[in-house]
Design goal:
It is built from 20 helices and seven strands. A three-stranded antiparallel β-sheet has the order 3-4-5. A two-stranded parallel sheet has the order 1-2. It has a two-stranded antiparallel sheet with strand order 6-7. It has two domains: 200 residues, Fumarase/aspartase (N-terminal domain) (Fumarase C, Chain B, domain 1), CATH 1.10.275; 338 residues, Fumarase C, Chain A, domain 2. The mean pLDDT is 94. Strand 1, helix 1 and strand 2 form a beta-alpha-beta unit. The radius of gyration is 27 Å and the shape is elongated. Helix 11 crosses helix 13 and helix 13 packs across helix 20. The two termini are 23 Å apart. Helix content is 53%, strand content 4%. The chain is mainly alpha-helical and 548 residues long.
Length: 548
Amino acid sequence: MTITLTGSSLTLADIDAVARGGAKVAISDDPAVRARIEGSRAVIAKAVEKGEEIYGVTTLFGGMADVHVTREQLIDVQRIALWQHKSTTGPRLPQADVRAAMLLRANSLVRGASGVRTELIDRLVAFLNAGAAPHMYQRGSIGASGDLVPLTYIGASILGLSPEFLVDMGGETQDCHTVLRKLGFEPIDPEPKEGLALNNGTGACTGVAANVMTRALDAAAMALGVHALFAQALLATDQSFDPYIHAQKPHPGQVWTAERMAELIRGGKTIRSEAGGDRAKRHGDLIQDRYGIRCLPQFLGPVMDGLATAARQVTTEANTANDNPLIDPDTGETFHTGNFLAQYTAIAMDSTRYLIGLMCKHIDSQVALMITPAFSNGLTPALVGNMETGVNVGLKSLHIGMNQMSTQISYLGQSVADRFPTHAEMYNQNINSQAMNAANLARDQMDVTEHFLAAALITGVQAVEVRAKVETGRCDAREILSPGTVPLYEAVRRAALGEPDAARTLVWDDMDRFIQPMVEGVISDISARGGIHAALGKLRGSLDGLIG
């Protein structure tokens, strides 16, 4: 699989394919694309020859842009633009985020508004295709004048600015000069504008954000699948998802959520239909389901709409020219701009974290119903499998852990773009986006969320197996589940332990085995986008359709 860069056509799926899937990358062979790259480079060369004033080319940077440099200093200025930003340390960015950042920087430069040589983009592509990942760090960027610090580690590595810039390739850490030679390149100096073009952009925070968005959308699909298992375990009615209800309140996300839930639970033997007013199969004292099921489309609908908006914002940002200045190769005009401000990425990540917190809060509330006999319509306490021993306590500890994680997920959902000082860099960057903080927090939140969802999926499997035992005397939930949820049930069961067992629930006797390996197995499957992802493929594709 090869992802072709045009500067305007990257999708979240493309970014994921390169960042996590190792797909190859190529620059478009469209002559118009190449002409724009070369044309913007020619504009810079001509302006320098004429002695025109251009920010960051014939001047220093930011609050020192009133300092003019001589012709003899033009290359030094570009070297300094990168050199000075090797200034951080701390936790490294995961390799998937580094690859996404390289991809987005290359895509931005391909737009032909940045004034760089094609060779620089070729080097970025060569690094990606060789699996060479510069060492980058989570700290150092406020997403204002772009991601100056993290992108410097990419730009300096592909140029060979200094062997102190390190790169992971082939399972070992090497200096960038060694990597360049292995890829058939030699160290080169940045020409006028090129240092700034390499680090003055939003590719690092947006690369992290793109990877987060793919995981967040996967999580949203899993959440609906979890709720479909829960609904069948709780003997829910399908009336909550009737099209008539949602036609009266036709928010796109609400309608979409209701439609998907109706599809998922259709044909489930424990789901009661109240079409025509038939409530003969109603369980319990309430005439209607509790809010967790009855209001599910109204609660998760805005979550889905919000995630769709964030996904569109991140995708658009990934296909922008976002350094300063920008060059129009058609007119020769140079524009001093603010496209490097990563506010869209910051807002997208703040909102995504908030929405994921809401989503997990809803799941946590449903779990509380299922483990409590007063509300579960006949499920065992704490979803104990074997009630005969008198000492089993089922999933009590797992659910305590889920409550801890849901609190952490909610805490990480607090906004960051609206906080903290706005006086950076001699008051030049007097507003900033904090997009890298927002994106890094979102990645951390997704790590917790995937653990939480693994526990929720295990809970869903245990719940439907307990329900199957209550209803049929057998623990294989395929005998009662809807066709739309059988693949998810099987995928989670296999990832946790193995094939369904008619005689025993997933967790039967407490002392049979530890729950931890089950959770780890499901987390591993989620991370690898394995069987669980495949089981939700149609649903996940429909969510992409909601994004548009």
